Amino acid sequence: MNINLTLFAQAATFALFIWFTVKFVWPPLLRAIEARQKTVADGLAAAEQGKRSLETSTRQADEAIKTARERSTDIVGQAEKRAAQMIEEAKNAAKDEGAREKAAARAEIEQEVQRARELLREQVAALAVAGAEKILRREIDARAHAELLEGIKRQL
User: Fold this and answer.
1) Euclidean distance between CA atoms 57 and 63, whole angstroms
2) What single DSSP character describes residue 76?
3) Are 142 and 136 in contact (CB under 8 A)?
4) d(CA 104, CA 98)
5) Which of 24, 102, 103, 130 is 20 to 30 A (C-alpha) from 38?
6) How far apart are CA 54 and CA 48, in angstroms?
7) How far apart are alpha carbons 35 and 42 in whole angstroms?
8) What whole-number distance in Å separates Cα of residue 52 and Cα of residue 60?
């Protein structure tokens, strides 16, 4: 093997090329690679954080839905209970109103009966007076007969 100037020139050129690459090309490449690694690492960390945040949000949403369902069940139960209570109150109010109307009707019937009795007494008294008048025309003692008729009127 023959070592000559060409070999030294090629070695010097290669050394110059390595020095130039190390000095001027390699640092920007390393910075770009490091920046890309940092971006990828940040992206992975953000993805992991997003995943954890999604899991937390999912759990919170599930708990909120569960709470809302329980609350809606409670509200529906209370509404049903209140509806039953209102129906019962309406029934009781209707019974009370029916009792009041029944009592008012009985009182009105009693008043009508009393009026009919009074009317009947007056008619019987008028008939008795008419009969007494006929009797009095025949007999002289009118006062005795009037007292007798008044007693009959009171008895009726």
Assistant:
1) 10
2) H
3) yes
4) 10
5) 24
6) 10
7) 10
8) 12
* Token code pair at residue 64: 């909120």
129: tokens are 């007076």
Residue 149: closest CA among 137, 138, 130, 139: 130
Vertex 15: Cα angle to 13 and 21 (nearest 5): 100
Please check whether residue 152 is in contact with residue 130, taking contact to mean a CB–CB distance below 8 angstroms: no
For the chain, 156 residues long, the average pLDDT of each consecutive 10-residue run is: 80 95 93 95 94 94 94 93 92 92 91 89 77 64 69 70
User: What SS3 state is found at 4?
Assistant: coil
Q: Exposed (0-12), middle (13-18) or buried (19+): which is 121, by Cβ within 10 Å?
A: middle
Instruction: Please tell me the predicted confidence (pLDDT) of residue 7.
Output: 87
Cα torsion through 4, 8, 11, 17, rounded to 10: -140
Which residues, at least 6 apart from 129, have a Cβ–Cβ distance to it below 8 Å?
149
The pair of structure tokens assigned to 68 is 């809302």
Instruction: Give me the helix-helix angle, 26-138 and 142-155, nearest 10°.
Output: 160
